[in-house]
Amino acid sequence: MKIISAIIKPFKLDDVREAIAEVGVDGLTVSEVKGFGRQKGHTELYRGAEYQVDFLPKVKLEIATKAENVDRIIEAISSAAYTGKIGDGKIFVYDLSNVVRIRTGEVDAEAI
Q1: Which of 23, 65, 69, 99 would staple 111 via disulfide (CB 3.0–4.6 Å)?
Q2: SS3 for 44?
Q3: pTM for the whole thing?
Q4: Chain segment 63-103, per-residue pLDDT in tens
Q5: Domain 2-111, CATH 3.40.228.10 — does that match?
Q6: Bridge partners of residue 7, in order along the sequence
């Protein structure tokens, strides 16, 4: 089992959600986060004053899945989140050792 964690631009969330639903993802967790990568933020103008925005708004998706589904999900996220511009995001894949569904007590793959 694996956890796929993707950081994407907020306006791409609906496109990514539709793309991963097409490859069979039943559920995901979405968090609004802030951060920066190579782009290091940007400068904005507000009421005539210029200021530095160090942390940019992003969306973090977390998907628990069986290992055999990882490549299809990564491809779906990558293609749907792609704009070709800096800040498109990143995808991380982690090993998932245990899962327990609280309501039923199901464990591991049955709990996903």
Answers
A1: 99
A2: strand
A3: 0.83
A4: 999 999 999 999 999 999 999 988 889 999 999 999 999 99
A5: no
A6: 60, 90
Q: Which residues of 24-50 are buried (b: 16+ CB within 10 A; e: fewer)?
A: ebeebeeeeeeeeeeeeeeeeeeeeee
Q: What percent of the chain is predicted at pLDDT more than 90?
A: 66
Cα 93 from Cα 64, distance rounded (Å): 10
Q: Which two tokens stand for residue 27?
A: 């559920």
Please tell me the total number of residues recorded for the chain in this structure: 112
Q: Which of 6, 67, 51, 52 is nearest to 33 (CA)?
A: 6
pLDDT at 51: 64
Task: State the chain's mean pLDDT as an integer.
Answer: 89
Coil, helix or strand at residue 96: coil
What is the arithmetic mean of pLDDT over 3-17? 96
Q: Which burial class, exposed, middle or buried, applies to 72 when counting CB atoms under 10 A from its CB (0-12, 13-18, 19+)? A: middle
- Please give the structure tokens belonging to residue 85: 């511009």
Residue 11 has φ and ψ, to the nearest 5°, of: -75, -10
CA-to-CA distance for 33 and 9, rounded, in angstroms? 10
